[in-house]
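Protein in question quoted for reference:
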Amino acid sequence: MKILFDTNTPAPLAHALRPHKVTLSVDVGWDRLENGSLLSAAEAAGFDVLISCDQNIPYQQNFTDRKIAVIILSTNRWPLIRPVAAQIGQMLEFLQRGQVRRVDVRAL
């Protein structure tokens, strides 16, 4: 599975998502793209999932015809995410195309 991390997603989370291929948006020059352009670029590049901490994505975008799934983490603070990183990784197996999944890391 190809996963794209938005600029606000803690990079250390990638270690918990192995064996999936994780790419940081900054590494492909997409760190300044707005949400709609980022989603379109990610889909065109064959990414399956975008992981972000941007709480506004579902309100700014229509996911009806999107191919990419999105996980929105409730925080970008790595000390809070680290204990539940494996659980976030397990969620990947159940995502469907175009699905937006909000994850309250404090509730996991």
